[in-house]
Amino acid sequence: MFIDFLKKIFDEAANNKALIWRDASFTYRQLLERLEYWQDYLKNENIAPGDAVTLEADFSPNAVAALLALIEHGCIVIPLTTPSQEKRKEFSKIAMRTAMIRLDSADNAAILHFDCKSDHKLYRVLRNIGHPGLVLFSSGSTGKSKAVVHDFSRLLVKYKIRRHNLRTLSFLLFDHIAGIDTLFYSLSNGSCLITADNRAPDTICHAIEKFRVEVLPVSPTFLNLLILSEAYNCHDLSSLKYITYGTEVMSEMTLKKCAKIFPGVTILQKYGTSEVGTLRSKSKSSDSAWVRIGGEGYQTRIIDGILQIKADSAMLGYLNAESPFTDDGWFVTGDMVEVDGDYMRILGRESEIINVGGQKVFPAEVENVIEQMPNITEAVVYGEKNPLVGQIVCARVTPGKTESLDELAIIIKSYCRRFLENYKVPVKISIAENNQHTDRFKKVRKNP
Amino acid sequence: MSDNEIILKALYDAVEQVNIDLPADQKLAKSPVTVLFGPGSSLDSLGLVNLIVAAEQKIDENMSVAISIADERAMSQKNSPFRTIQTLADYIDILVQEKTNA
After folding, report:
1. Which sign, positive or negative, has the C-alpha torsion A126, A127, A131, A136?
2. Of A387, A417, A423, the CB nearest to B21
3. Taking CB atoms and an 8 Å limit, are A422 and B17 in contact across chains?
4. Which class would CATH give A196-350?
5. What is the CATH number of the domain that holds B77?
């Protein structure tokens, strides 16, 4: 009953491709068959409505069918994609799962049952009204991961309106709100969702060319890597109509470069959080970071420069943290924004602002400048405590070719001085030894 | 070279780095009596922070000792260690000795 509207669409689009996975296509008819199989599977395995079930999977045919079956069965689903076993263990414990379904790389399923007291007041809310749930873990790039609990039936409401049928690449992850949004947007329009074997720029470009992808939803960090890799030169990407980006602040330089590389493509900013879902949005133009956000079921307001959102489909709460809602039900996003009429521009996370002698520095602004330098692949800017001025600006960079740290520091500082006020110029510069982003392609601004 | 000479040399290297960003008439002289911070200094607080961070890096490179020059203790000294290059060198000497004897 929760996914009746989807089943109707699947029926209508029975012969259309629903998924391309490992270069093979699966139609909506096959997806319906898989769904039936999974509904039987859950019954045979004695999974009951209200059970908390982790689904360790990616966007495979069985993963999508199992997810839909779990929703229809009224279960609380916890999708997990993270490659780190430790994280999966930690998350499974927080989510108090009673069963785990794992899909291996050949899409074969294994199930394990656990004797676990799966009791939490938010789970009780869902079980009392008989609704399916969704548990997502916030990225934790600035601290501990929080377990967000949604009423899945409320999240699905917005997909009941038919929108555009576009071939979309599933770049964002299965256990991330943006990945879930991509999946349901695609399913609810009878569209084809294309999965790539990995998220390297060349693999993604190859998939776009081969399957004539029209929508590429990504993170700004990935766009940066794509530009630097120049992989777009080696493939025919003329099928692309939209590039959407979100989840972190976009560097204007990246945006402008991207608009130049993909002149016929509309580049749109998306805004969403694990807590309230993905809002509808409209960018001022392809090379502008100014965006209008909202849409049906969402209200926005700005208090003390910070964006707050009221959403019909907001989460019920966190499993492992206090409620972040104001007394009147607004979610405080923690994102500082600048406003111009209807439009706003995201400046950065309030928690990541660096305070140098009382003056505010947004990491993204400094990163934006450093990343314009020819020899820099990636820059991450963060604050470090300093007794003289409170905090100092530090930059950890990934240079394209090797240079001595001394020389690199001198060049970066003098370059920054040309574009930034004195207090924004990094005092400490170091060279990154590893990747500077998470497996969700989000920058890590931690002080080492 | 004695520790004191190594420290002075590290400070001069740090001065050189900071001088790159200072206008010609405000560049610091490489001399023990050069005023770093306070009346008669051409450094503002950020300039001083840059000098200190550069000095910490140079000390680490040349003496393999990781010290933190600007902390609560430095701020609470009776006589500011940041007055001149010499007073800073003396203060660093104490920190280095503590670290190596620890």
Report:
1. positive
2. A417
3. no
4. alpha beta
5. 1.10.1200
